[in-house]
């Protein structure tokens, strides 16, 4: 088989600034060993997130110029609305400035004290908005999804038996909605199968519970279904997407993911009275219903991006390039979460840095080592991000210590990825030279963004 090449040519470029190891040593120290505090210009390959970091196409840039900035009834809104309706089959479309704004509006109306929101895995902003409304978020991730070693096709699925028994225990009236995150971001970008969506939808319909989809990576998920689920081999991406949206009562989306936009989002709904309530809140918090929190040019870019993301040549390259990195890591014997998902590779820092105890943050050690050795920026997803303290002051760790390398869409080429794995291999070969960290300063909430660290042994 021939090499799967990037399905685009490059028309406009951005420079990468190179730093020496010596310079990065000082930059890292000045940033208190926290990659979030490093300036983007001092990063060679930035894998911090795939959110809002996509390269737009020439068509999208042309759309930006065409954007109609009328306050009400803008042409760009109608193009955006038509596209989202066509993809989702949902009739009521509400633009917002990003995913969490959609969540805030939805859960202000649907959440509240004493209610539950059930999920395969709620993304952290979704959980925060559920909890802010007074409701409680509960995740039922399938058993395969909890085993980092297991190579299974749909590790993003929800555990439907657990869903059933929770509904039986609490009663359907206590459950605001079920939110299915596709692909399952916090679960490693793993896909959800059509069979799982269908089964959850049947349960929800029987119980009268609304089913929502967190659709940030709907196209990546649809492509995994085409590749891995019997009966979908010869369906195209719009057909597959249309089918899973047909089981849902609504969706929220961040256009910063599978819409190749740098900002934006929406809510799509089946129920008109609910749409009315959402629009009433939208006017207070985001803007008039035909622009939400966006400029006309953003609506234009999103409408075009949503169409482009369903192109199978793009999706083949996208999924294959993440897998390609996984294959290289396999050849080197480097531990990561298997199989690779749709948007990122998750290095298993606990095994990678097995000489560093969890209370010295092996994920942080791996993250800073990748920056020092190769100028690569990833993000720790482990005890720094999710650790809590017990009453005696000892650290309570989450089950895994990971470093996420998220791949921006259409930004890096195969040689960039080759470079990344070379740097990872270099760090792996001398991993015992890297020490753990202690936290020198931390804020009360979301400490990973601003915490300061010190090496345990400099
Ligand atoms: C990014 C993301 C969100 C939130 O979207 P923002 O645009 O960052 O506010 C919600 N859910 C999932 C699964 C995401 O990946």
Explain the overall architecture.
- This is Tryptophanase.
- Keywords: Lyase, Pyridoxal phosphate.
- One of its GO terms (molecular function) is carbon-carbon lyase activity.
- The modification N6-(pyridoxal phosphate)lysine is found at residue 257.
- Belongs to the beta-eliminating lyase family.
- The protein contains 16 helices and 16 strands.
- The protein is of the alpha/beta class and 458 residues long.
- The protein folds into two domains: 21-50 and 312-455, Aspartate Aminotransferase, domain 1, CATH 3.90.1150.10; 58-308, Aspartate Aminotransferase, domain 2.
- The strands form five sheets. Strands 2-8-7-6-5-3-4 form a seven-stranded mixed beta sheet, with helices on both faces.
- A hairpin with a 5-residue loop joins strand 12 (388-389) and strand 13 (395-396).
- Helix 1 (21-30) crosses helix 14 (362-374), helix 8 packs across helix 12 and helix 12 packs parallel to helix 16 (414-429).
- The longest helix has 21 residues, at 312-332.
- The chain starts with 20 loop residues before the first helix and ends with a strand.
- The model has no long low-confidence stretch (mean pLDDT 95).
- It binds pyridoxal-5'-phosphate.
- Pyridoxal-5'-phosphate binds at residues 51, 98-100, 123, 125-126, 181, 185, 214, 216, 254, 256-257, 265.
Alpha plus pi helix count? 16
CATH class of the largest domain: Alpha Beta
What is the share of helical residues?
40-55%
Largest sheet: 7 strands, mixed
Bound molecules: pyridoxal-5'-phosphate
The CATH architecture of the largest domain comes to: 3-Layer(aba) Sandwich
Query: What's the pLDDT, averaged over the residues?
Result: 95
Neighbour order of strands in the largest sheet: 2-8-7-6-5-3-4
Q: For the CA atoms, what is the radius of gyration?
A: 22 Å
The number of domains is 2
From the N-terminal CA to the C-terminal CA, the straight-line distance is 48 Å
- As residue ranges, the low-confidence spans are none
Number of strands: 16
Class from helix and strand fractions: alpha/beta
Backbone shape: globular
CATH superfamily of the largest domain: Type I PLP-dependent aspartate aminotransferase-like (Major domain)
Tell me what portion of residues adopts beta-strand conformation: 5-15%
CATH topology of the largest domain: Aspartate Aminotransferase, domain 2
């Amino acid at each position: 088989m021939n090499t799967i090449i990037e399905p685009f040519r490059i028309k406009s470029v951005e420079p990468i600034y190179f730093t020496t190891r010596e310079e990065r040593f000082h930059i890292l120290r000045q940033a208190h060993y926290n990659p979030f505090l490093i300036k983007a210009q001092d990063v060679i390959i930035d894998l911090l997130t795939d959110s809002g970091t996509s390269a737009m196409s020439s068509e999208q840039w042309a759309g930006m110029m065409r954007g109609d900035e009328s306050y009400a009834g803008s042409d760009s809104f109608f193009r955006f609305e038509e596209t989202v309706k066509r993809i989702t089959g949902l009739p009521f479309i509400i633009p917002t400035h990003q995913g969490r704004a959609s969540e805030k509006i939805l859960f202000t109306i649907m959440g509240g004290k004493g209610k539950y929101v059930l999920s395969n895995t709620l993304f952290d902003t979704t959980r925060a908005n559920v909890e802010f409304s007074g409701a409680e978020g509960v995740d039922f991730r399938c058993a395969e999804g909890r085993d980092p070693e297991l190579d299974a096709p749909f590790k993003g699925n929800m555990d439907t038996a657990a869903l059933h028994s929770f509904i039986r225990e609490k009663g359907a009236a206590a459950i605001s909605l079920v939110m299915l995150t596709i692909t399952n971001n916090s679960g490693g970008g793993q896909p959800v199968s059509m069979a799982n969506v269908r089964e959850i939808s049947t349960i929800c319909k029987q119980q009268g519970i609304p089913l929502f989809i967190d659709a940030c990576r709907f196209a990546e998920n649809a492509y995994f279904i085409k590749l891995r689920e019997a009966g979908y081999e010869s369906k195209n991406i719009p057909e597959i997407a249309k089918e899973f949206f047909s089981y849902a009562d609504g969706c929220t989306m961040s256009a910063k993911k599978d819409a190749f936009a740098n900002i934006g989002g929406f809510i799509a709904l089946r129920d008109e009275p609910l749409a009315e309530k959402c629009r009433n809140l939208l006017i207070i918090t985001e803007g008039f219903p035909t622009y939400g929190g966006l400029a006309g040019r953003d609506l234009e870019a999103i409408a075009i991006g949503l169409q482009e993301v369903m192109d199978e040549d793009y999706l083949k390259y996208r999924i294959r390039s993440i897998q390609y990195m996984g294959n290289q890591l396999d050849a080197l014997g480097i531990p990561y979460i298997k199989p690779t998902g749709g948007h990122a590779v998750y290095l298993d820092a606990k095994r990678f840095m097995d000489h560093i105890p969890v209370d010295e943050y092996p994920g942080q050690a791996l993250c800073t080592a990748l920056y020092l050795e190769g100028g690569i920026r990833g993000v720790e997803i482990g005890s720094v991000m999710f650790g809590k303290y017990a009453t005696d002051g000892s650290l309570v760790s989450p089950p895994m210590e990971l470093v996420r390398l998220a791949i921006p869409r259409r930004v890096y080429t195969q040689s960039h990825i080759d470079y990344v794995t070379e740097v990872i291999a270099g760090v792996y070969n001398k991993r015992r030279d890297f020490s753990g960290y202690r936290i020198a300063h931390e804020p009360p909430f979301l400490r990973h963004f601003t915490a300061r660290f010190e090496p345990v042994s400099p």
